[in-house]
Design brief:
Length: about 120
Amino acid sequence: QVQLVESGGRLVQTGGSLRLSCAASGLTFSRYFMGWFRQAPGKEREFVAAISRLGVNTYYVDSVKGRFTISRDNAKNTVTLQMNSLKPEDTAVYYCAAGLKGPTSDSEYSYWGQGTQVTVSS
């Protein structure tokens, strides 16, 4: 079965950096767009970043452009999210997802990880 496992979430200070990783198994990894979404308490899940099948194209929500970078390693079946200049409003549970279509709508993603908590203190 397909599994996506996130790691790297923790408490960081405003202005700090964090790198999230997602390890995928049970799927042909290079067939899928990979995305990162986040959900804060009381808010809807929102798109954060996505990357195309071979890593040629990337997509970001405006609020993270210039601060976050998504990348993938198809040889290792992993996708990462490098987060710099973190702000309290980045606090959320971050989920990685895989989908044959996309890239920015969560309805286009078929598989989801369990999430990892990122907390940015002010």
